[in-house]
């Protein structure tokens, strides 16, 4: 473990021992990818190297270039199915063997899992699990009912992983509350808010259009509610994100200006110019795109759900994600009210400073320090 002294966003020193090498898992499909790269950037000045083991689908050429830009990250790629996918368990076992072989070869100081099931593996290193989302909480939020019995095996595997982890973290209190309610009490679990670097997203000259970013087909993001209202709004609507569903078919994007999937550097100018950012989400444990929009000085219109209230209450306009009438009414009124737009933009930008990369890095270094201390005590016994 390397000695280092990170600082919080307020400049406070956090004394800890930074790990030299972390074996970290990720998938290239959702927001965890950007989270991993942002955290890697924050850890680099502390001498931390990341062995990044990916699963779920192949890494895209653009993502491969992103990894190449981070000198402290080495990519280890696989295509094993993830635990939340259909019929994944054979692949979960194979990927577990693969991860153990990486640990044996690389000898990391600790293992950072951005998933659950693999925490039960016989790791030689201390293991952190970060609860970014889960199928059961997704089901409740999106379907409005308890998850069906066919997901009981998933529930059991997640619970076993959480119980086996040396430490558990989540990106919001709302997400941690869901994990505790659905699986285990986890009294020692911690909340560490996600972050995005401020240099990547900045306000620009605002134009009269509405922006939304995310998987358009995803019922949790609920971007379809905005698409369906677009014809009746006074401003044009631009949507960036994938429309093709994993199982086939595509989301309807009639009535909006489709930007397609854009890398962060290509998205930044759109955020900078957009006057209003909309995400009427039914389920969003943190919401990195919301933070990117806030850093870019957009007025935020968000789904009224616990996690987004936790992070943005007082700095955003909230709408009922199940009410197309409410969404349309609020957006039409906001488009016509320049003063309210300006106020919301200022409040969102100010709130975004709470989610700094320095603060996230310090939070994880603190968790890593706890894991390292526990491992040293265990080794002496």
UniProtKB/TrEMBL annotation:
Q: Does the keyword Transmembrane apply?
A: no
Superkingdom per UniProt:
Bacteria
For this protein, the record's Pfam families field holds:
Glyco_trans_1_4, Glyco_transf_4
Keyword field:
Transferase
Task: Identify the InterPro entries for this entry.
Answer: Glyco_trans_4-like_N
All copies of the Glycosyltransferase subfamily 4-like N-terminal domain together span: 29-194
Q: Report if keyword Transferase is assigned.
A: yes
Protein name per the record: Glycosyltransferase family 4 protein
The scientific name of the source species is Geomonas oryzisoli
């Amino acid at each position: 473990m390397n000695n280092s002294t990170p600082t919080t966003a307020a400049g406070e020193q956090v004394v800890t021992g930074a790990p030299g090498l972390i074996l970290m898992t990720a998938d290239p499909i959702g927001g965890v990818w950007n989270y991993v790269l942002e955290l890697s950037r924050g850890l680099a000045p502390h001498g931390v190297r990341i062995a990044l083991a990916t699963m779920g689908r192949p890494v895209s050429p653009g993502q491969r270039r992103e990894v190449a830009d981070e000198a402290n990250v080495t990519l280890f790629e696989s295509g094993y199915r993830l635990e939340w996918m259909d019929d994944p368990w054979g692949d979960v076992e194979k990927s577990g063997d693969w991860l153990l072989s990486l640990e044996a070869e690389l000898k990391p100081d600790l293992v950072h899992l951005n998933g659950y099931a693999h925490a039960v593996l016989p790791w030689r290193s201390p293991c952190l699990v970060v609860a970014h989302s889960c199928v059961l909480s997704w089901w409740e939020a999106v379907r409005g009912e308890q998850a069906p019995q066919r997901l009981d095996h998933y529930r059991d595997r997640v619970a076993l992983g959480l119980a086996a982890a040396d430490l558990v973290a989540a990106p919001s209190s709302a997400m941690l509350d869901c994990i505790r309610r659905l699986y285990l009490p986890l009294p020692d679990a911690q909340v560490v808010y996600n972050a995005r670097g401020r240099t990547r997203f900045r306000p620009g000259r605002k134009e009269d259009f509405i922006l939304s970013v995310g998987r358009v087909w995803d019922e949790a993001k609920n971007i379809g509610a905005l698409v369906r209202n677009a014809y009746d709004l006074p401003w044009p609507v631009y949507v960036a994100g994938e429309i093709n569903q994993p199982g086939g078919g595509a989301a309807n994007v009639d009535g909006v200006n489709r930007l397609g999937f854009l890398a962060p550097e290509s998205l930044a100018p759109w955020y900078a110019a957009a006057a209003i950012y909309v995400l009427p989400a039914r389920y969003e444990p943190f919401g990195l795109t919301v933070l990117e929009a806030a850093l870019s000085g957009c007025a935020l219109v968000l789904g009224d759900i616990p996690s987004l209230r936790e992070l943005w209450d007082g700095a955003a306009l909230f709408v009922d994600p199940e009410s197309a009438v409410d969404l349309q009414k609020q957006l039409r009124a906001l488009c016509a009210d320049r003063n309210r737009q300006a106020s919301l933009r200022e409040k969102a930008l100010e709130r975004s400073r709470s989610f700094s990369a320095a603060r996230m890095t310090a939070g994880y270094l603190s968790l890593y320090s706890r894991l390292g201390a526990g491992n040293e005590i265990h080794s002496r016994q």
